[in-house]
Design a protein that fits this description.
Elements: H1 9-12, E1 21-22, E2 28-31, E3 42-46, H2 47-50, E4 55-61, E5 66-71, E6 78-87, E7 96-104, E8 116-125, E9 130-138, E10 150-158, E11 170-175, E12 178-181, H3 187-190, E13 195-201, E14 205-208, E15 217-219, E16 225-228, E17 242-244, E18 251-253, E19 268-270, E20 295-298, E21 312-314, E22 327-332, E23 344-345, E24 350-351, E25 354-355, E26 358-362, E27 366-371, E28 379-380, E29 385-390, E30 400-401
Parallel strand pairs: 1-3, 2-4, 3-5, 4-6, 5-7, 6-8, 7-9, 8-10, 9-11, 10-12, 11-13, 12-14, 13-15, 14-16, 15-17, 16-18, 17-19, 18-20, 19-21, 20-29, 21-30, 22-26
Antiparallel strand pairs: 23-28, 24-25, 26-27, 27-29
Amino acid sequence: MSTGLSLNATSATQITNFEILDVSGGAGTYNASLFAGPGFTSLQADSAIAGNFGAVVVSNVASTGFAFNAIAAKGINAGDTSLDIQLKTAVSTTDSATVTLTATDGDNLGGANGQVNIGVVSATTGGIETFNIVSNVNGIDAGLKATSYTNTIGTLTDVSSGAGDSGLVKLVLSGNANLTITTALAAATTANLTTIDASAMTGNDTLDVSSAVKGLTFLGGSGVDTITFGTAVALSLGSGASIAGNGGNDVFNLGTGTALAGHPTADTLVYKAATDTTQTLDATGTKISATSTLETITAFQSVADAKLSHDTIDLTTFGFTSTAKGVAQLGAIAAVNGGTFAATSATLFTDAGGARGIAVGNDGANTYVFVDANHDGAFNASQDLVIKMVGVHTISSADFAL
C-alpha cells in the first residue's frame, strides 16, 4: 500500500486475513484502528518492491508486539525518510515495539551494498518503554562478512507522553550486521533510560547516550560496542553506569565532564572472561600486531586522578586472592599494539611482592591494564586481558573490585 491515503474505513473492510501490511515506497498515515480486532501488528517496507519509503506514520497500534521491517533492495543502499510509531494507548509503562533493518546483498559486485538507512525513527504518541532494534544482513558478497555491513538510524526519538507513561526505559539491540544510531539520543529520550541490552548483538553497534540522567546498565554483545556514556548534570554524584562489554574489543567513552571535576559519575566496567578482550598477534606469533585493536576506555577516572568521583574495573569473577590482588607497576612500556610488544612474558605480573593478578604500564600517551585471566602468573596475549585507557593514569588496587 503505497500511501496511507488508500487506507480508510471502506478499504480496510476489503483487506482481511493478512499477517503483514506492505508499505513499500509508501508515505502518509496508516491507521491500525480501521481494521477489525487489534489491527495490523506487522508492517514491512521492501525497497525492491517500490523503492524507498517516505514519511511513514503508523497510528493506533497495539501497545505490545508491533513490528516494522525495512528491507533494502539487493545491492542497492536504501535511504528511507522516517518512521513514526503512534500507540493506541498512550498511557502505559509496559509498551514494546521492534524495528528491524535488513540489508540485502550477495550480488558479488564488490563492496558492501544494500544497506538500510532510516533518517528518523520515533515514538511521538505514547512512549515505548522497551524498544527493540534489529540490524541484519541477508546475502553477503564473497569475501565479506556480516560486519562489513552497517545499517543506520539517523535519529531515534522515544519520549514520554506525560504522567503514567515512562517513555524509553530499555533499549534492546540485536542482529548480525552493524548498527549505528548517528545522532546522540536527546535528553527527552533518555530521561528514564536505565538499560541498554546489546547482548544478542553479533554485529558492531555505535550509540551516544551521553544525555542519560540515570545510572545505566549496559550489556554488550560479541561485536564491538562503541558507546558514549553520560555527563549530564542531573546525574547524582556516584550514580554511574554498570558496563559489561562481553567481548569485541569495545570502545567506551565515560564522558570527560570538566577538566577540574571530571565526569560526575562513578562508572563500573565489568570483565568476566579472557574472551572479553582479544589481541591479534603478528605473523611470527611472538608480538602483538600493530594492526590489533584493543579494548579502549576514554575518560577513566582513577582514585589518583582526584576528580569528584572515580571509576572502577570489576574483576571479581576472576577470584584473585592473596598477593594476586596486588598490582604490578611496570612503569614505561612500549605501546601494546605498536608492533613490538611481546605476546608472552613470564615476569610481567611479578614484582617484589610476588605474582600479581594485574599489571599496569604506560607508553607516555596511554595506560595499559593487563589481567592474568588464567591465573598462571605469566602473560599470554592469547589467554589474558588487555585494556587500554586513553591518557596516562596512576592505577592502583584501589581502582579495582577484586
